[in-house]
Write a structure and sequence with these properties.
Length: about 280
């Protein structure tokens, strides 16, 4: 498997949910839904972005990729986050050597290949789904938070727009628009365990499953995140395993690009990586 494809999947994992909700579809009518009541609102508030008790996350991680067809791969790295500010990802496929790093901030994605001494910058404003993309939503996907697309601090009126849904043994909270549905599904322990983003008419969806929860500052934090795509042009199964997460610790968020590095397009950067592994 090409290292290029592994890197691509990393960004599918980060942006897959947001990419999917930009598609067109309609609401499903098979489930039983009702507007949230006061108890539901309190549960939602405990799981929303603005109530997350951590300012920073710093963790060693293992990335595992299993395509629907082809050979899987795994590699180590790190993920660091500063709430509402940045996500810093380091990818280390060769015995701890940092082959590539990525910085995601409020308006941009910066990729650096240390192997080739090149970098690229992508502005989020260029994407058709830009109204839904913000640093908070991306952090929420990576840290098991329920979110309102395009609003990192929804008020009580906005929270009341959620529906509570039940289908067989499945229940949770639903955010439905004319063009997409987001289901935030609870497990038997009343933990938020699955995000399902989909458009029913097109039979396409992204699933994010959270597991291996542990109590961190009275909050259940999942050490395993598995993203699966279904019905898309290319389908993936991608896992992020948090190995040693640390919260609210002094964290180095420096992201320096040597002056000798050449700026290229992201397409060119991936092209330069295509012969690796």
């Amino acid at each position: 498997m090409k290292f290029q494809n592994t890197i691509k999947v990393l960004f599918v994992a980060i942006f897959g949910v947001v990419l999917t909700i930009g598609l067109t579809g309609c609401r499903s009518t098979k489930e039983i839904t009702h507007k949230v009541v006061s108890g539901d609102v309190r549960k939602l508030e405990s799981l929303l972005h603005q109530t997350y008790p951590f300012k920073t996350l710093d963790s060693k991680v293992e990335f595992k990729f299993n395509p629907k067809q082809g050979v899987g791969a795994s590699m180590r790295g790190t993920i660091r986050m500063n709430k509402d500010s940045c996500i810093l990802i380091s990818i280390q496929p060769f015995a701890g050597f940092e082959a590539m790093k990525c910085l995601i901030v409020r308006d941009s994605i910066v990729l650096v290949s240390r192997l080739h001494k090149i970098y690229s910058v992508e502005k989020l404003s260029q994407y058709a789904f830009k109204e839904y993309v913000n640093i908070s939503a991306l952090q929420d996907v990576l840290t098991n938070r329920i979110f309102v697309p395009g609003d990192q601090n929804p008020n009580e009126r906005k929270i009341a727009r959620f529906d509570r849904f039940h289908k067989n043994d499945t229940e949770g909270f639903r955010w439905a628009e004319n063009s997409y549905i987001l289901d935030f599904i609870l497990n038997k322990d009343n933990q938020y365990a699955t995000l399902k983003a989909y458009r029913p008419e097109w039979d396409q969806q992204v699933l994010v499953n959270y597991s291996l929860f542990s109590a961190e500052n009275d909050v259940d934090f999942p050490h395993s995140l598995v993203l699966t795509t279904e019905g898309l042009k290319e389908n993936y199964n991608f896992q992020i395993q948090y190995l040693k997460p640390q919260f609210n610790t002094p964290t180095d968020f420096r992201f320096e690009i040597p002056s000798s590095y050449k700026k290229v397009t992201t397409k060119e950067l991936f092209k330069r990586l295509q012969d690796l592994i």
